[in-house]
Design brief:
alpha/beta; TIM Barrel; Rossmann fold; nine-stranded parallel β-sheet; five-stranded parallel β-sheet; 21 helices; 16 strands; globular; disordered N terminus; Cbl-dep_enz_cat; isomerase; cobalt; Methylmalonyl-CoA mutase; Cobalamin-bd_sf
Length: 613
């Protein structure tokens, strides 16, 4: 039977529908509502429409995988990826190698050893493990990556290991207090020389995860990776190393976040822009196909509380990475934020990849996003936004100067502040953290010890909410009852109820014993609250009532040593100075500075020597 031409309609009885017709029908169905109410804008500045048509497809779509510019990957037969388990090495390496061997026996196809300290790694012991042969073995070194690499290759030769069979990457992540780091420029030339006989070992791993794990936009992550890669190429050119030699040995390490379709399009856009950069050096398109992309699930979205939700996040993040065409994937254990992962959590994270292959068959289809009006359009828009960001970095002198001048840190800080505000307003939701908390959750770790641990990651979306919850848990474990917050609503106006509702959800998410009381007037509220022993009191009412309330209640408490924390559920605007002078400690409203609020509550209540009653 002859194949039908692509132009032949599948359903001849239906008239083709264009975008204008769809929009007209939507406007009609919406009646009084505006069509623009269906549009939403992402943090990246991309406007997402309610529907997409053929008219949204970019020009010059790549028809087949393995075609330049490799938007659809270089995979020609299937969509295989390495299931990489991350193993942290902090002291002796042999127990970590034993764990790696077990992981490879149980479904992993690769290992990523991350040395958190300058450990003497026993490479000989590594090569003595039969399961290591043929697996993808990668390393992140904190110092002297070229020295470690030399020892690794020397040990391989001593164990009669064929260097052409070595697979993996080498990444540099120094131990210092700096939020972000530069590539190991001085180490790259000798490392390139060391791996000349190991064609599948990538000694230049460009890290984008250091930015995305701290809250950068995905377009920023792409731009920063590309800018860092260009800076490495330019530095190597100064040492008379041809760009082709550098480009052919590069790997990118990025993360997968929770914005599912955007993360699929991110990897496609990254390959598209990388191909453009490679072409700018006058190199053949095929060399861009040497690029390998390693993806790890983002720490930015992980949470300490309700941690099993991290399993769901990890699954959707893994799916987006796989459908986007990653070459290797690491899925973090759901409990890694608050303890050393155990066998169960490591097995579950490892098996997510196994299920996506063995039961969901995602390894069978290459780039299933191809041809989707939405995803093809999204790939183009993400690429354009990322390219604008890349050009901005280049105008600032490139990656190295932008990092040293703290321009990059300032740009990411600006974004994270916006994200924290969106989380406070619940425009962005972290399930179990800023909405839908598990009130009956019982923690199996020491909250005080976690807060004091140097390994507790404070650079995550959930951190401001978690720090309140951890302090509340400390109180609960010491006093066997929850810290108490009282919310007093005076009057019946809508705004008063909205502010009170927001405050109630905030303190419930922090695991406070939260109560809402309604009063008809200020006198009733003041009379009741005078004898109340709650340590946190939130007042919601009109501006006139605030003034009256201070005379009836707040003024009498100003000098008392056991004064509760008084919080005004309102936007301060012009009355901030006056209300502070009259005894209010903080404000709470949608869009408030949650960091300041958390600090206030912690300092005055949760961390006082005298515990809450």
């Amino acid at each position: 039977m002859n194949e039908a031409k692509s132009e032949t309609p599948l359903f001849n009885d239906f008239t083709p529908v264009n975008a204008q017709t769809w929009e007209e029908r939507i406007r009609k169905d919406l009646r009084e509502a505006s069509y623009h109410s269906l549009l939403w804008q992402t943090d990246e500045g991309i406007t997402v429409k309610p529907f997409y048509t053929r008219q949204d497809l970019p020009e010059n779509l790549v028809s087949r995988p393995d075609d330049f510019p490799f938007v659809r990957t270089t995979k020609a037969r299937d969509n295989q990826w390495d299931n990489v388990q991350t193993i942290y090495v902090r002291r002796e390496s042999q127990p970590s190698i034993d764990k790696a061997a077990t992981a490879l026996e149980r479904g992993a196809t690769g290992i990523h050893f991350i040395l958190k300290e300058p450990v003497d790694f026993d490479f000989g012991y590594l090569f003595s493990k039969p399961f290591m042969r043929g697996a993808s073995i990668s390393f992140t070194f904190p110092v002297s990556p070229e020295t470690y690499l030399e020892q690794y290759l020397k040990s391989a030769k001593e164990n009669n290991y064929d260097l052409t069979l070595l697979r993996g990457f080498i990444q540099f992540e120094p131990i210092d207090d700096e939020p972000f780091h530069l590539p190991a420029y001085a180490c790259i030339p000798p490392m390139l020389d060391l791996v000349k006989d190991a064609p599948n070992l990538y000694p230049i791993a460009i890290s984008g995860q250091q930015f995305s794990n701290r809250g950068s936009l995905l377009t920023q992550e792409i731009a920063l990776v590309l800018s860092a890669a260009v800076s490495v190429i330019e530095n190597c050119e100064k040492h008379n190393i041809a760009p082709e030699k550098v480009i052919s040995r590069m790997q990118f390490h990025v993360t997968a976040g929770t914005n599912y379709f955007f993360e699929i399009a991110k990897l496609r856009a990254l390959r598209l822009l990388w191909s453009a950069i490679v072409s700018s050096y006058g190199l053949h398109g095929e060399i861009a196909g040497r690029l390998r992309i390693h993806v790890s699930t983002s720490r930015w979205f992980q949470t300490v509380f309700d941690p099993h939700v991290n399993l769901l996040r990890g699954t959707t993040q893994a799916m987006s990475a796989v459908l986007g065409g990653c070459d290797s994937l690491s899925i973090a254990p759901f409990d890694q934020l608050y303890k050393t992962p155990d066998d169960f959590s490591e097995r579950i994270s490892r098996n997510i990849s196994v299920i996506l292959k063995e039961e969901a068959y995602l390894d069978k289809a290459i780039d299933p996003a191809a041809g989707s009006y939405y995803l093809e359009s999204l790939t183009k828009e993400i690429a354009e936004k990322a390219w604008e960001c890349f050009q901005l970095l280049e105008s600032k002198g490139g990656f190295k100067k932008s990092l040293e001048s703290e321009f990059i840190a300032a740009e990411i800080k600006k974004i994270t502040e916006q994200k924290f505000k969106a989380l406070t307003n619940r425009e962005h939701i972290l399930v179990g953290t800023n909405k839908y908390p598990n009130a009956n959750e019982k923690v199996d770790f020491d909250p005080e010890r976690l807060m004091q641990s140097k390994y507790y990651d404070t650079n995550r979306a959930a951190y401001p909410f978690e720090i309140m919850r951890l302090a509340s848990e400390m109180h609960f474990q010491k006093r066997k009852k929850k810290a108490r917050a009282l919310i007093a609503v005076i009057g019946t106006k809508l705004n008063e109820h909205l502010h009170a509702s927001f405050a109630k959800e905030f303190f419930e998410c922090a695991n406070f014993d939260t109560h809402v009381y309604h009063f008809e007037n200020v006198e009733d509220a003041a009379a009741t609250l005078q004898n109340n022993d709650s340590k946190i009191i939130v007042l919601s009412g009109s501006e006139e009532q605030y003034q009256h309330f201070t005379a009836e209640f707040t003024g009498n408490l100003k000098g008392k040593p056991q004064k509760p924390v008084l919080i005004l559920a309102a936007t301060p605007q012009h009355m901030e100075t006056e209300m502070t002078a009259k005894g209010f400690d903080q404000y709470i409203f949608q869009g408030c500075d949650i960091g300041t609020l958390v600090d206030c509550v912690q300092k005055k209540v949760l961390l006082e020597d005298e515990p809450l009653d």
